Amino acid sequence: MAKGRVYVIGAFPPPTTGASTITEAVAREIKCRFPATVCNTASNRRGFRYHFERLSRSAAAAFRVLMAPEGSVIYLPAQAGWGRLYDLLFIGCSVIRRLRLVMHHHARSYLEVRSRVTALMYMLGRRTDTVHVYLCEGMQSNAERTYGRTPSLAISNRHFIQAPSGQLPTRKGDAPLRLGFISNLTAEKGLDTALELASRVSKTRAGGVVLAVAGPVNDTSVVPLLRDPLVSYCGPVHAERKEKFFNSIDYLLFPTRYRHEAEPLVVIEAVSRGVPVLATEIGCIPELLRKAKYCHAYPEESWVDLASALLNDGLDHLELKQSVGSPLWLDEMSALGSLQEFFRVLAPGDATS
User: Which of 45, 141, 182, 320 is positioned for an S-S bond with 49, CB 3.0–4.6 A?
Assistant: First the structure.
């Protein structure tokens, strides 16, 4: 008889998002450890073609779950919005087959505010062997408060992001202060707030200020902001161009107000490269930055005031950049306890046992 497998069902790049990037990274780790089948449910199309492709791919994935060998495990990155309806399909198939289900949550909105669809997901999940995976203890507590206690664990995305090697380049101390903003560019990600901060600091800083912006434009309302004289727009950046972007900035600004924001990868990428981060107190960001030197998470309503006060206090940004990615922070990234538990619950059974 066939052995159980791990079925990875989720959206893979493209399009590239934080959740799809982590799904791809987790799938890579799973395939190194267990027999695995990957079912990509994403679509990079638009309009009717988008919905048709997602529906057809999801139907094919559900069929694979129904035909899975005994002892198989379903790894399902949970979706937000209408995507939860697809999740219900996969949860239902797991219940029918009585397979272990590992749901990896990447959004915070539906965990903080109760919704009927998510409540149904949790109710169905209790009918099979389901383990919920959250990105931090705060998400875990919110979920338990909203939907009741279930088997779960909290593991940061930073465990799946490889820290770069090598030294940061030395930059001149009299160069303009380079603030960075990188994201899928939408109004909710806070580019307007980052530009407000850059504008305020530029009025008091003799050396000048540049706001380097990177990422694809997903919202036309941000286009006028990219024409501001303080902005240097780099477009979408990946691989070597992303490394060049991080190496060129003195601070990463991330004043997000995105309602699904949980643990943004750009914050992890910046800190692991020794770039200080100034972000808003949303989701897992405060927990993520708690032990990262010179990084701060401020309330949304006072973010510009507090961040401008810090940037204007004359700290040597070259010294900061060399010390922010401290060994303590990076050592925590390599901790094995949470990872071992994560892969333990993903381990498929042997139908011959």
Answer: 45
The answer to whether residue 331 scores a pLDDT higher than 70 is: no
Strands 251-254 vs 231-235: parallel, antiparallel or unpaired: unpaired
Cβ–Cβ under 8 Å, residues 179 and 249? yes
Q: Which two tokens stand for residue 7?
A: 């079925």
Tokens representing 104 are 């990896």
pLDDT at 3: 82
The C-alpha atoms of residue 62 and residue 89 are separated, in whole angstroms, by: 7
Compute the distance between CA of residue 182 and CA of residue 255 in angstroms, rounded to an integer: 11
Q: Are 52 and 333 in contact (CB under 8 A)?
A: no
Which residue has better confidence, 322 or 302?
A: 302
| pTM higher than 0.85 | yes
**Dihedral Cα 225, 226, 231, 234, nearest 10 deg:** 150
> Is 170 a residue whose pLDDT tops 80?
no
Distance CA 77, CA 54 (A): 15
Strand, helix or coil for residue 30: helix
**How far lies 252's CA from each of 211, 227, 235, 276, 297, in Å?**
10, 20, 16, 6, 12
DSSP state of 220: G
Please state, rounded to an integer, the average pLDDT across all residues of the chain.
88
What single DSSP character describes residue 99? -
**Contact call for residues 348 and 72 (beta carbons, < 8 A):** yes
d(CA 273, CA 324): 8
Q: Which residue segments constitute the domains of the chain, with CATH numbers given?
A: 6-154 (3.40.50.11930), 177-333 (3.40.50.2000)
- Rounded CA separation 345/102 (Å): 8
